[in-house]
Amino acid sequence: MSALSFEGLNVWFGEGRDRVDAVKGATFQVAPGETFGLVGESGSGKSTIMRALTGLAPHWSGHMSVNGRPVGRRRDKEFYKTVQMVFQDPYASLHPRQSVDQVLSETLYLHGFTDIEPRIEKLLDDVGLGPSFRFRYPHQLSGGQRQRVAIARALAPEPSILLLDEPTSALDVSVQAEILNLLTDLRAEHDLTFLMVSHDLAVVGHMCERIAVMQFGEIVEILGVDEMRAMQTTQPYTRSLLKASLGYIRD
Predict the structure, then answer these.
(1) Helices 100-110 and 116-126, interaxial angle, to 10°?
(2) What is the rounded distance in angstroms from the CA atom of residue 240 to the CA atom of residue 246?
(3) CA 61, CA 58: separation in Å to the nearest integer?
(4) 46 pLDDT above the threshold of 60
(5) 238 φψ region: left (φ > 0), alpha (ψ -120 to 50), beta (else)
(6) Helix, strand, or coil here: 27?
(7) What is the pTM of this model?
(8) Strands annotated E in the chain
(9) Torsion angles phi and psi, residue 99, rounded to 5
(10) Per-domain residue ranges for the chain?
(11) Which of the residue ranges 66-80, 84-98, 148-162 would you say has the lowest mean pLDDT?
(12) How many Cα atoms are found within 13 Å in the side-chain-facing hemisphere of 32?
């Protein structure tokens, strides 16, 4: 059984003459424990697939399922305990007037946990932040520290699937590797499945087992990361994408 399954997914914005088809007939599966990448140029529909899954893009057709359970028009509590998302910009995704303690406490409370104190300590430890960060506010944190808090918040409901929407693109280059290594460690420790969006093929090569290449809302090719590195592709668009990043996808 797949952790995530998408069959003939179409996603659009607007209606009538204003309608824009952002995703067209996307079909792929993500195995339990796998890190699967969605790559392509800006506007190719990568993030829109994640937004459709989480309910942030409400106009869609086709079939989506999580651990074999079909995703309907409304997402229940069980869905959000299973699937969580880490956004691109950690500053925008955190409330500026809420301390780290408030962010994590509120999330844990909403998901029905009562042993909040020890859970906050464990979450901060898991993402490499000590207790001294607990009562700081987002403006008192670096970009990397804010993203660690965002990851801790995503882990709070104990999900099995994380959606990673360009999780390092807003960070300094020196910090990106730290966050990617943290995510790799967390995946192993918590037995997580990742669906990752990235325009950076070096990131994809480091994190993913397989990738889907998107162009103009369509998946043009699915290939393994070893095939990607070896330039073993049948599609001209994929080949041009790989050639543009050739210097950055070496082992």
Answers:
(1) 120
(2) 10
(3) 10
(4) yes
(5) alpha
(6) strand
(7) 0.93
(8) 4-13, 20-30, 35-40, 60-66, 69-70, 83-86, 161-165, 193-197, 210-215, 218-224
(9) -70, 165
(10) 4-248
(11) 84-98
(12) 10
Task: Give me the pLDDT at residue 250, please.
Answer: 47
The Cα–Cα gap between 12 and 33 comes to 30
For residue 239, give every residue at least 6 positions away whose Cβ sits within 8 Å of its Cβ, in sequence order, or none: 231, 233
Cross-strand partners of 63: 7
Quick one: fold of 4-248? Rossmann fold (3.40.50)
Q: Which of 175, 181, 176, 93 is nearest to 138 (CA)?
A: 93
Q: Give residue for tokens 């796998």.
A: 34
Closest residue by Cα to residue 57 from 165, 135, 206: 165
Both tokens of 179, joined, read 């966050």
Classify 246 as helix, strand or coil: helix
Place of tokens 């943290």: 182
Q: Which two tokens stand for residue 226?
A: 């070893």
C-alpha–C-alpha distance, residues 235 and 221, integer Å: 7
Nearest in space to 100 (alpha carbons), one of 126, 80, 123, 82? 123
CA–CA distance, 245 with 149 (Å, rounded to integer)? 31
**How many CB atoms sit inside 10 A of residue 248's CB?**
11
Q: Strand, helix or coil at 133? A: helix
Q: Please write the tens of the pLDDT for every residue from 185-231.
A: 999 999 999 999 998 888 888 899 999 999 999 999 999 999 988 88
Give the torsion sign (CA, 41, 165, 23, 15).
Answer: negative
Stated as kind and residue range, the H or E segment containing 75 is none
